[in-house]
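[Meeting: bench + compute handoff]

Bench side (C.D.) handed over the final construct sequence. Compute side (W.E.) agreed to return the predicted structure before the next meeting so the bench team could plan truncations. Sequence as handed over:
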Amino acid sequence: MIGWGLLFGVYTFFMIWLAVPARRLLQSLIVEHGLYVQTASDAAIGPLFRSMGLIFSNIRLSLFKENVYSGKTVQV
C-alpha cells in the first residue's frame, strides 16, 4: 500500500513540476516558430504554387473516338 502511495506521489510530482511546464514551454516555442514558417512559406512557396496552378489550369484535353483503319494486312 505504501508502494502505491509513493508511486502516485512520484508520478504526480513528475507531471506537475516537469512534464506540464515542459509541454507548455515547447508549445509556446512551436507556436512562435510556426509563425515564422508560415510567413516564409507565404512569401516563397505560395507564389510559386499559385503560378504553377495558373500555368496548368490552361491545359485542356478533348477526348474523341476515332476509328483507325489500316489497309495493310500482315500474314503470319
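W.E. noted at the follow-up: The mean pLDDT is 87. C.D. will use this when planning the next construct.
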